[in-house]
Amino acid sequence: MTEQEFLEYVQDGGQVETNDWMPDEYRAKLIKFIEMHGNSELMGVLPEREWILRAPTLQRKLALTAKVQDEVGHSQLIYRVVEDLGKPREQCLEDLVSGKTKFHNVFHYPTKTWGDVGVIAWLVDAAAIISQKALLKCSYAPYARIMKKICWEESFHILHGRDVVLTMMNGTDEQRDLVQEAVNRWWGPLMQFHGNPIPKDEDPMYVWRIKSQGNEEARQQFLDGYVPQIWEIGLTVPDPKLRKRDDGVWEFTEPDWDELKHVVTGHGPKTQERLELRQATREETAWVRRVVLAEAA
Amino acid sequence: MSERAQQLLGIADDELVLGWRNSEWTGIAPFLEEDVAFSSIAQNEIGHARALYQLVADELGTTADALAFDRSPEDYRHSRLVELRLVPDWARTIARHVLYEEADAKRLEELKASDESAVAGLAAKIDREEAYHRMHAQMWRERLQDEPRFTDALEELRPLLGESGSPEFAELWEEMTIVRRSVAGATW
Amino acid sequence: MIYEVFRQERRGQAFAHAGSVEAPDQAFAEWYAREQYGRRGESVSLWVVPRHEIVEIGDFADELQRNYHRVDGYPLKEKLKEARERAGTAAAGDR
Is the pLDDT of residue B184 over 90? Predict the structure, then answer.
């Protein structure tokens, strides 16, 4: 197969398996994209971990632990796919903690209150699931297959988040303030989450059918699905321009693309601290991997 | 409080505090597969605590959450062993896991023989889950038995099984209850 | 070592490949497989196999037309029409 034939094959809905021939560029882009996803699941654990210890009921404690456990499980599934494409897990983890590879913007920000816990599980996971659904038809079949399990597990995360938020919204004024304040802080990163609006035919991820959706399409889907949910319980969104036009398209203040670039290149408020925590725990537990995994290699 | 309630609270408190400490590894365990596995163990322990608290709560006319969170730190009945913060030391974590599961197995056998069917029934359910924990502890013990840091940890931690929790628990309790106490009487 | 995991979602269904886990030995692999593919009761049964035990076959030689053992080797419509005409039982759809 030539590169052109391969391109036509995937654009026609063709599926690629691990041992199939693929153009070097496709393999490289695939590894980079999937690796960033794995990195994001693993880094996403850190903002939520602190709240596992502070969960205010046993049910919430269990739910939050299970949610974070899922994220770790997802990173396991994802790094296995990357490893079978040719990049070992340990190399991925090294590159992550050294800052060489990236992870999604939302995981570079602090979590400040229990309000964040609800808002993240509800809205950040919602934004993520939209991107993930667009990967269910990925031309690279092993990745498409794990996305099915990932999407299935994510569905409880959003319900848990919504439950936490609704409980607080039905509670006291202080609790409602916590939720609104969290929405106000997370709105910017949420709007940047799906990336800047490059036309899908210029987006290699779409061209190679790794994603089945462009960035702007994903963002519109998020707004369409979740702004009504936000408004209907009495919360406001900190964007005076946000509205749905008659033709169904959502208008909003242009997200800060400079902030997005700045953050994902390692300059977010919590980036360094979180990478250092990962590095420290990796070092402290390196002996375990040597004893338990190395001898089997 | 009845002797039965005190006894069950002691076990519940052990499971709660150990589950809390074990959940501190979620996200940062030595490798990903083990991270997922150990998190389930932590969740099971909290689940056991919840079920045990519920039995006592029914007797006392309160809720499992109230027993888990709303007592003063001095009123908890866990052992010194479970309240230690061991992250990021995997050797001591597994040593504690091995020691605790051994001791807990004996305790569960006694509970399974209880006259009270609710207690015996719950103990049987818990034991069926704990069988997996014991398997996990044994697997790790075999892997680490030649590591001095592990064998040292077993010796260091063994005596703490029989010791009561210390004033240090107050620090964990503060963090555990910080959100719950932040808005008095709120539902979360 | 990499272990492949196959799962059965419900009794009676076929086992399907679910994914893989890295583990030092079979005992650990079983623990990890049970966790990753069964902690939510999403599987009723799992098979856990070291990857190197699995042989993939992707090539099949089928050079010469072999429709004699496939359904598409038996287009009967014309012969059936002729037989019905001969027997005087031609059905409306045979025209």
Answer: no
**Is the confidence at residue C69, as pLDDT, over 90?**
no
Neighbours of chain A (3+ CB pairs under 8 A): B, C
From the list C27, C32, C39, which residue is nearest B33 (CB)?
C32
Residue C53, min C-alpha distance to chain B (Å): 21
Q: Is residue C86 part of a domain?
A: no
Answer yes or no: is pLDDT of A270 > 90.
yes
Question: Domains of chain A by range and CATH?
Answer: 3-296 (1.20.1260.10)
Task: Tell me the DSSP string of B123-176.
Answer: HHHHHHHHHHHHHHHHHHHHHHTT-HHHHHHHHHHGGGGGSBP-TTHHHHHHHH
Determine, yes or no, domain membership for C61: no
Interface size between A and C, measured as CB pairs under 8 A = 29
Please, what is the end-to-end C-alpha distance for chain C in angstroms?
66
For the segment A27-75, what is each residue's pLDDT rounded down to a tens digit? 999 999 999 999 999 999 999 988 999 999 999 999 999 999 999 999 9
Q: Looking at beta carbons, which pairs linking B22-25 to residues 24 or more positions away fall under 8 Å?
A: B22/B93, B22/B97, B23/A52, B23/A53, B23/A61, B23/A65, B24/A52, B24/A53, B24/B85, B24/B87, B25/B87, B25/B93
Which range among A160-169, A284-293, C56-65 shows the weakest confidence by mean pLDDT? C56-65
Residue pLDDT, tens place only, C3-39: 999 999 999 999 999 999 999 999 999 999 999 999 9
Taking the C-alpha atoms of residue A43 and residue A244, their distance in angstroms, rounded to an integer, is 33
- Collect all residues with Cβ–Cβ distance below 8 Å to B173 and sequence separation of at least 6: B73, B76
ipTM of this predicted structure: 0.95
Q: Are C31 and B36 an interchain contact pair (Cβ–Cβ within 8 Å)? A: no
- Measure the CA–CA gap between B43 and B35, rounded to whole angstroms: 12
Q: How high is the pLDDT of residue C66?
A: 85
CATH number corresponding to B3-182: 1.20.1260.10
DSSP state of A255: P
Q: What tokens does A21 get?
A: 């021939």
Query: How far is Cα A289 from Cα A291, in angstroms, rounded to an integer?
Result: 5
For chain B, which residues make up each domain, given as ranges? 3-182
Determine contact: B129 vs chain C, CB below 8 A.
no
